Amino acid sequence: MKLVMAVIKPFKLDEVREALTPLGVQGLTVTEVKGFGRQKGQTEIYRGAEYHVSFLPKVKIEVTVPDELADAVVEAIATTARTGKIGDGKIFVLDVERALRIRTGETDGSAL
Amino acid sequence: MKLVMAVIKPFKLDEVREALTPLGVQGLTVTEVKGFGRQKGQTEIYRGAEYHVSFLPKVKIEVTVPDELADAVVEAIATTARTGKIGDGKIFVLDVERALRIRTGETDGSAL
Amino acid sequence: MKLVMAVIKPFKLDEVREALTPLGVQGLTVTEVKGFGRQKGQTEIYRGAEYHVSFLPKVKIEVTVPDELADAVVEAIATTARTGKIGDGKIFVLDVERALRIRTGETDGSAL
Amino acid sequence: MTGKDLTTVKRIFARCGLAAATLMLAAMPAMAEDAKVDTGDAAWMLTSTALVLMMTVPGVALFYAGMVRKKNVLATMMQSFFITALVTVIWMVAGYSIAFGEGGTYSAYVGDFSKVLLSGLSENWDKPFTLGTGDGAVAFTIPESVFLMFQMTFAIITAALITGAVADRMKFSALVMFVTLWSLLVYSPIAHWVWHPNGWLFGLGALDFAGGTVVHINAGVAGLVAAIVLGKRVGYGTENMAPFNLGLAVIGASLLWVGWFGFNAGSAGSSGGGRAGMAMLVTQIAAGGAVLSWTFAEWMIKGKPSVLGAISGAVAGLVAITPAAGFVLPGAALIIGLVAGLAGLWGATALKHALGYDDSLDAFGVHGICGIVGALLVGFLSYGPLSATTAAPDGSPGGMEQFIKQCIAVGATIVFTAVATFIILKITDVVIGLRVSEEEEREGLDVTMHGERIN
Amino acid sequence: MTGKDLTTVKRIFARCGLAAATLMLAAMPAMAEDAKVDTGDAAWMLTSTALVLMMTVPGVALFYAGMVRKKNVLATMMQSFFITALVTVIWMVAGYSIAFGEGGTYSAYVGDFSKVLLSGLSENWDKPFTLGTGDGAVAFTIPESVFLMFQMTFAIITAALITGAVADRMKFSALVMFVTLWSLLVYSPIAHWVWHPNGWLFGLGALDFAGGTVVHINAGVAGLVAAIVLGKRVGYGTENMAPFNLGLAVIGASLLWVGWFGFNAGSAGSSGGGRAGMAMLVTQIAAGGAVLSWTFAEWMIKGKPSVLGAISGAVAGLVAITPAAGFVLPGAALIIGLVAGLAGLWGATALKHALGYDDSLDAFGVHGICGIVGALLVGFLSYGPLSATTAAPDGSPGGMEQFIKQCIAVGATIVFTAVATFIILKITDVVIGLRVSEEEEREGLDVTMHGERIN
Amino acid sequence: MTGKDLTTVKRIFARCGLAAATLMLAAMPAMAEDAKVDTGDAAWMLTSTALVLMMTVPGVALFYAGMVRKKNVLATMMQSFFITALVTVIWMVAGYSIAFGEGGTYSAYVGDFSKVLLSGLSENWDKPFTLGTGDGAVAFTIPESVFLMFQMTFAIITAALITGAVADRMKFSALVMFVTLWSLLVYSPIAHWVWHPNGWLFGLGALDFAGGTVVHINAGVAGLVAAIVLGKRVGYGTENMAPFNLGLAVIGASLLWVGWFGFNAGSAGSSGGGRAGMAMLVTQIAAGGAVLSWTFAEWMIKGKPSVLGAISGAVAGLVAITPAAGFVLPGAALIIGLVAGLAGLWGATALKHALGYDDSLDAFGVHGICGIVGALLVGFLSYGPLSATTAAPDGSPGGMEQFIKQCIAVGATIVFTAVATFIILKITDVVIGLRVSEEEEREGLDVTMHGERIN
Ligand SMILES: Nc1ncnc2c1ncn2[C@@H]1O[C@H](COP(=O)(O)OP(=O)(O)O)[C@@H](O)[C@H]1O
Ligand SMILES: Nc1ncnc2c1ncn2[C@@H]1O[C@H](COP(=O)(O)OP(=O)(O)O)[C@@H](O)[C@H]1O
Ligand SMILES: Nc1ncnc2c1ncn2[C@@H]1O[C@H](COP(=O)(O)OP(=O)(O)O)[C@@H](O)[C@H]1O
After folding, report:
1. For chain A, what is the domain count?
2. Average pLDDT over residues D222-229
3. What phi and psi values does residue A35 have, to the nearest 5 degrees?
4. ipTM score here?
C-alpha cells in the first residue's frame, strides 16, 4: 500500500475529496497545516511591529491506498487541486507496510 | 524503526497513551485531524444553507518505535481504541530510516 | 527523496526555517501538534478537578528533500532546534517514492 | 408658542419617534426661558445613547463577524468599528444638519446647512431642546447635545447594518466612500422625512416609533441592492461557508438585544410617563416571541433548532417591534414577534434562494423583511391611548386608514433608498471599484485589506 | 390608603426586595389619581432591567459556555439564550400573574390568574404602580410595565442558572419542557412567597433584598436535584473535561458583575434615597472580597491562583450579598464576601467530591451554597437604619430572632424546590426523556442537538 | 454655608472633574438638613459607575488579552480581573480616605485616615454628599456611597491600565504587591491633588475633567517605568509576537468606548444641566476623529488600515478628550481627536522604537502620550461658558495662562508617578522578584502562573 500525502490549497479540499470517491477511495485524513514555499506570504503589521508571515494556510490530505490505485489517486489530486497559480502544493507518495482497521481488525487491503 | 500512525476517536487518546507506556513507549506525537470515511458526518444548516460535513474530528497518533516493538504497539492501539462502532479508525505502519534526538544527538534506537 | 519529519519546540520554528533556506530547501510544511515524552507536562486544576496535561505544544516540520540533502537538513534542524533542555524533540527520516508539484506536474527532484 | 400650537405639536408628534416628549408637555410649565433639563429624562437618554452605541460596537460587529469564515472575521468587525467613527464625524459635520435642520423650500424632504459642524450648539447647551420652530415645534426635556448624540447612534447603526449584505467581498476603501455618501444622501434625508416635524412622512401621520423605516427597511434594502450589484461571493453555493465562530454571533445578538432597550425605550425621549416602560416591555416580548417562532419552525422544517436560528429570531423580533414599540400592547407585541420570526426565517432562506442573490448575512432577509412586517402590522395593531394626547384623545388606533399611511411610508422608503443606493454604488464603482480581486477574496479580507489575522 | 396603612406597608416592605420604595412614600403626596412617575427612579429601573437582562445574555451564556468542552459550547449558550425567550413569553402569559397576582384562598402561597397575558396593563400604564391592595399595598414611583419587566429578568436568569448543573448531557427538548413547568410551578410561587405583600415569607419578615432565596438558592437546589437525577457525564472523573475557552467565562463573569449592579441596586426600586447607592457599594465590596478569599485560598491549597477561581469567587460574592445588599454596611459586606469566597470554593470542590454528584458547572456549589451563606449571614449582619422606616425606626437589626426567620426562609425554599423540581424532572423524563444518548454525548450537543459547531 | 462660600466653591470646582455639580447649586435650596438626593442625577451616576466598571472588566481585560500571544491570554485577563477585586478592597480600606479625606497639615498633598474602612458612611447615607468642609466644600446631589463607588471604578481602571506595559513577563505575586502599594501611595495622593478641594492642583485651577492626569498620564508613566525596569520580553524584536486574537481586542475597545460615556459624562456628577450631554458628545467626536486620523495615517504610511490601528485610535481619542470632556465644544473635540490619533500612532510606533523600551501593549504610547496631549490642548481649547459659574461668568477660557497651569499639572504628575513607581518596583523586586523565569516566560504565564490554558 501507499500513503499519498498531498498538501493543497484549503478551498480545493471538497473538490479533491469528491474526485477520489469514484476511484474507490473510502476514507482519508485531513490536517490543517501551514506551508512555506515559493508562494510569498503577507506582511502583518501590529502597531509598527512587522512580521513577515511566510507561512500560508494549507491543507494536508493523507490517504492510504492499495499500490495499484496510487497513481490514479495522485493523478486525480493533481488535476483537481491545480489552479495553475503558485502555491498549489505538492504530492508525496510513501510506502506503507501494514494497515489495520481498528473496528474489525481487518488488515492491509481490506482495512482501507 | 517503524512509524506507527494511528487515526483514532479523540476520546480514546488518553487510554491509548496509557496502554503504550507499559510497552516501553516513551514518547509520541499527537495531531488533531479530520477524518473522512464510512462513518457518516453530520449535516449542518446555517440559515438554510446546508453543509454536509463529511469530516469528523479524529486524533492522529504518530509514534516511532524499534522494529521489534511495532507489532505490540499496533496491537495495543487496536485493542484500546476499539469501540466496535463505525469510525474507530486505522493504523498504518511505515518504515523509518533514521531517528535523532535533538537534545542529545543520539540516533536511532536510543533516540526514541 | 527523503521526508524529514521533525518535532521541535514552537519558538524555534522561525530559526529552523531560516537555517534550511541556505541549504536549498525551498518549501516545507508545518503542523501544530502536541507532544508526549520525557518532558513533564503541567497540572491544570479547574475547580478541584485536576488534569495532568501530559501533552505539550510542539511543532512538526515536514520537508521532502533529495536524498543527498537529507543529512544536511537533519543536521541543520538538530543544531538550530537544540536548546539542550528536555523536550527539544526528534527528527525522523522516511523514504519518499514519488513527489509531484501540483501546479506544474513536475515530478520528483524538480518538484521540491 | 401658544396653547393651540402645543396642541398641534402633540397631535402630530405622537405619531412618531421620541413621541413621549409630548406627554410631558402637559405637565410642563410654559416653554419659558428658564425651563430646566429633567435630570431623570436626561439620565435615561444618556443611558440609552450608550446602549445604542453598544449595539454597533461591539453588537453588530460581533453578530456579523461570528457568521463569516475565519479569514474575514477581523475585516467584518473593522467595518462596523470604522463606520462608527466615520459616521460620527459625518453626522457632526453635516449629517445632523441635513436630517434635523429646518430646511428651506424643500423642507418636507431635506434639512439645510444651518447646523453644519453643530453650529449653534454652544448656545442653550444647558437648556431643554426644541426641535423645529413655529407650529410644528416639538419640545424636549433634554438638551440638544443629548438629542443629537442619541440620533447619531441611529445613523451609525444603520450604516453598519448594511455591511452584512456585502460581507466577504467589498473593498474597504469602497466601503468608506460608499458609507460617506450614503449616510449624507440617503440616511439623513429619510430621517428628515420621518422624524423632523417638517418631514412629509411625519406630516402624513405614518407611525414609526424607533426607526422601522429609517433604520431597518432602509439598511435592508440598501443591503439588498448592494448584494446584487456586487454579485455573489466566490464559491457561493458550492463551497463550505459555514460560520467560523457562532459564539461571537451569540454575544453580538445578546448585546443587540440589551442595547435595543435603549433603541426603543430611548425613543420615548423620556423615562417618565409610561411610554418608555411599555416600549421596553413590548420589545422584550416581541423578541421572545420571534425566537420561539423561528426556532420551532426551523425545528419542524429542518429537524433541529439551531443557535443561529434562535439569535436570528431575536433580531427579527426586535426589528419588527421597532416601528411599533411605543404604540402597541403586549398582546400585539407577541403577535408581531411570532410573525416576525416566521417572516425572517422565510426571508433568510426561501426568499433568498428563490431570488438567487447573495445577501451574505441576511441584512435584507432579516432587517428589510421584518422592518416591513413591523411597519405594516403597527398600522393594524397600534393601541390608541398609547399615542393619545389631550388634543387627540383617541391617538392613532390601528385600522385601514393607518395601514395605508404605513404602506406609503414603507413604499417611499424602499423606492428612494433602492434608487439612491444603486446610484451611489455605481459612482463608487467607477471611482474606486467595489469588489476585491478573486485572489484577495480567496485569501480573505483580514490579511489582504488590513494586514492582520486571527489565530 | 390611610396614614396607618402606609406605616404598615413601610414596616413590612422594608424587609424585602425593592424595599427603597417605602422610603419614597414619606416624601410622596398621597397616592392620588394624579401621582406621577418619578423620571429619575424610572430611568434607573429601566437601566437596571437592561443590566439584569445582560446578566443572562450574554452573561450566564458566556460564563457557562466558557467552562464546557468545545463540542458543547454553542449548546450551552443556546440554553441561556433560548430560556431568555421562553421565560419571557411564559412570564407574560401566566408567570407574572402567578407570582404577583393577589391570589385567592391560598394567597400566602400563590397568586392568581388575574394578570394572565398581562391583562389590566393597558390601564394606568402611565401611572405609578401599587403592588397588592388594602393594608399590604406597596407603592412604587414607577409604572407597572417597568416593575414587571424588571421582575421578568429575574425569572429568566433563575432558570438559566440551573443549566450549569445539567450541562453537556440534557436533551434540548427536555430542557424546554422542564423550564416551562419549573418557571410556572416553582419560580413563580416562591417569588410570590417572598416578594408579594401577601406572601407568607414576606409576612414573616424574612430578609431577602434581591433574591438570595428566590433566585440563587432556588436555582442552586434545582440544579443539584437535576444533576443527581440526570447522573454523571460520560467520562466524568476519568476523561479530561478541561474548559475549552475560559476567556469566554471571564467575559461572562465580568458582565455578570456589571449587571449585578442592576440586580442589587435595582432592587432598591428607586435611585433616590441612599439605598440603591449603598446596595451597589456593598455589592462591589462583597464581590471583591470573595475574589480575594477564593483566590488566596486556592493559591495556598493548590499552589496557583487560577483565573477560574477568581471569576468563580466574584460570582460567589455577588450571590452571597444578594439577599443582604440593601441591609448591610460595607464592613459587613466585606465579611460576607470573604466568607462566600471560601464557601464557594468548598462547595465547588470538597463538598462536590465528597458527595459524588456531577454538578457540571457548580450551579449548586456556587449559587446554592453562597445563596445560603448570604441569606443566613444577613440575619446577623443587617444594620437597622438601612431598613428603618418611620414606623419602625430600628429597622431589622441582625440578631438571633432575625436569624431564625432567615433559617425558615432558606429551609422552606430548599424543601419546596427540591421536591417540586424532582417531580417535574420525573414527568419530563417520562414524556420526553431527559438525557441524550451516550453517542450524542460523546459527539457533543452542538452538532447533535443543534446541527452546528464552532471551529 | 453662606452665599459667598457657595460662590467660591463654584469658581474653584468648575475647573475640575465632577464640575457640573456646581451648576446645580444655583438651582438648589440652601444646603439644609433636609436636602434630598436628586433621583435623576443619582440614576445617571449609578449607571455611570456600572459603565466605568465595565471598562475594566471586561473592557481592559479583553483589550489587552486580545493583543498578547495565546499562552498569555488568560494571565492577561486575570490581571485586570484580579486588580478589580484588589483595588476594591484597598479603596474601601484606606484608598478612599487617602484620596478624599480632608487631610491634615499636608492636606494639599494627601488625605487622612478619617474615612478608613469607609467609617462615617453609615450616617447620612441617604443624604446628598458634600465633599470637603468650610470654604472649599463642594456639594453634590447624590449620596456619598455613589460618589465613592464612582471614584472607586477610576482607581480600579488606572491600576489595570498599567498591566499593558508589563504584559507577558511580570510575576503575578509581584503584580499583586505592586498594585497594592501603588494604588495607596501613588494613585490616591494624585487623586487628592486634583479632585479634592484641598488638593494643590485643584487650587491651582488646572483643568482635568475626568482624569487625564490622575488616570491616563499616571498609568501611562507608571507603565513606562515598569516596562523599563522589567526589561524587554524574551524574543522581543526577533520572534513573532503577533496578537493571538485581535477579535477580543475589538470587543474590549468597543466596551471601553461605550463605558467611557460613564467615565466622562459621569464626571459631570449629574445628568442635569447640559454638561453631561456635552461631555458625552465631545467624547464621541474625539474618539471618532482619532480613529480616522490613526487609520488614515497608517494607511498612508504602511499601506493598510489595520483593525488594531482603528481600535487603538479610538482609545487614543478617548484618552485625550478625558481631561477636556466637560470644557470644550464639538469643534475643539474634533481637533483633539485628530491630533490624538496621530500622537498615539507616533507614541506606539516611532517613539517606542526610537527609545527602545518594550512597552508590550503601549500603555505609555497610548495612555501616557494622549493623556498629555489632551491635558495640554484643553489649556488652549477650553470654552469659557462651559465652565462658567455665576461667580466667574467667563469660566476658564483657553489661553496661555491656562496652558501653563496645565503644564504644571502634567509635569508634577509625571515626575511624582515616575519616581514613586520606580521605588515601589524596586522594593517589590527585592521582596518578591518582579519577573518570571525565562522558561516560564517561554511556556507562557497562563500555565505557569495560573495552571490553566485556553484551547
Ligand atoms: N519540500 C517540501 N516539503 C514539504 N512540503 C513542501 C515542500 N515544498 C513545498 N511544500 C508545501 O507545498 C506548498 C506549496 O509550495 P510552493 O513552493 O509555495 O508553491 P508550488 O506548489 O506552486 O511550488 C508549501 O506551502 C508547502 O506547504
Ligand atoms: N484510506 C485511508 N487513508 C487514511 N485515513 C483513512 C483511510 N480510511 C479511513 N481513514 C481514517 O480513519 C477514520 C475512520 O474510518 P471510517 O471509514 O469512518 O470507519 P472505520 O474505521 O470503522 O472503518 C476516518 O475518519 C479517516 O480519518
Ligand atoms: N517515539 C516517538 N515517536 C514520535 N514522537 C516522539 C517520540 N518520542 C518523543 N516524541 C516527540 O518528541 C517530543 C520531545 O520528546 P521528550 O521525550 O519530551 O524530550 P527529548 O526530545 O528531550 O527526548 C515529544 O513531545 C514528542 O512530540
Report:
1. 1
2. 98
3. -110, 145
4. 0.95
